[in-house]
Amino acid sequence: MSWDNIRFDWNQVRAFWVTAEEGSLSAAARALRLTQPTLSRQVGALEASLGVTLFERTGRNMVLTRSGEALLGHVRAMGEAAAHVSLAASGQAQTVEGPVSITASDAFSTYLLPPVVERLQQIAPGITLKLVASNTLQDLLRREADIAIRHQRPDQTDLIARRLPDSRAPLYGACTYLDRHGRPETLEDLARARFVGFDTTDLLLEGLRQRGCPVTREQFRCASANGTVAWEMVRQGLGIGTMFSEIADLFDDVEQVLPEVFEPFEVSTWLITHRELHTSRPIRLVFDLLAETFG
Known about the structure:
alpha/beta
């Protein structure tokens, strides 16, 4: 491989990256503390050097083209890798200090975040984490949390949102329940099953019916607005329920119901923060670690 033809300007790449995350030149300029004309020139220079159009300008907004979307994934990986290399090489991760709060659903917080906390304590012991386990949207703009993991995209334009890989939520039952009541072999067999509901059962009931399951409200014998409690009721054999496969795979006392027949629920996942991401080293480090872990 010849390195002679490679031309790389990190300032241009960073200008593209932050503009893509912020959604407009004015917001990106504020985040990077540059003038808007300077930022625009850097983005334009990157487009010229690559010979592609990265953004469609629609009013004040900058919408990624297909080429821009393809480049963004590589740029994110480069930026995160560069940050980790820099911190590791200088030992700075050990010196990053300060509080960072993360909000996520109760099930996500209970089962998936503790390993991230443990890893963070190893690489940046000066960061103090506060986990807010909640299924309601926390207001990041009011600093109720610094980082949120949510299953819907935020509609506030002042937030930075990165989509993580979608999660799958199949049906699960405790082995003890399935041993006692039998393992369904067809969707019609679910008409005789007991179910555990999450919060109100309306959404789950409608989702099951859309997938051809002849389920009635009377089959939901118990429910909870707390996802961890609902999952524990499933594990205790009180009925069949749904759970993200990443969490269910942690337990050997449950098994998937109708894995070849039932179409799992698809749930989007978003990693969200405010603009302080670009200026706060603790928030940046935790955000990148979450993106690396779940991305």
